[in-house]
């Protein structure tokens, strides 16, 4: 996936919230992630599918439950590095 593609996946607040929650290292159900991000299960499902298709998340199905986790340690490192960069980045200039 291209840099723009990865950036696009993480640019959405809901998808970013999912990835940040998953930094805890455990697998979450789609329902848990939906509640965490404050979105409906159907909205969460759409976002999670995009993250899985983009290679940022991995999923495992157990019965009727779908568990999601970060795709690997490189994904976690990338998200942590982006968070560190964002914390130190100056605010964007205002209009005009």
What does it look like?
The chain is of the alpha+beta class. The protein has one domain (3-75): Orthogonal Bundle (Arc Repressor Mutant, subunit A), CATH 1.10.10.10. Helices cover 56% and strands 15% of the residues. It is built from 5 helices and 3 strands; from the N terminus they run ααβααββα. Strands 1-3-2 form a 3-stranded antiparallel β-sheet. Helix 2 packs across helix 3 (30-37) and helix 3 packs across helix 4 (41-53).
Find the count of extended strands (DSSP E, 2+ residues).
3
CATH topology, by name, is: Arc Repressor Mutant, subunit A
- The overall average pLDDT, rounded, is 93
Shape annotation = globular
Instruction: Determine the N-to-C terminus distance.
Output: 35 Å
Q: If helices are DSSP runs of H or I spanning 4 or more residues, what is the number of helices?
A: 5
- Biggest sheet strand line-up: 1-3-2
Top CATH class? Mainly Alpha
Work out the strand percent: 5-15%
Biggest sheet features: 3 strands, antiparallel
Rg, nearest Å: 14 Å
SSE string: HHEHHEEH
What is the name of the CATH superfamily? Winged helix-like DNA-binding domain superfamily/Winged helix DNA-binding domain
Under the CATH scheme, the architecture is: Orthogonal Bundle
* pLDDT < 50 stretches: none
Class by SSE composition: alpha+beta
Number of domains: 1
Helical content stands at: 55-70%
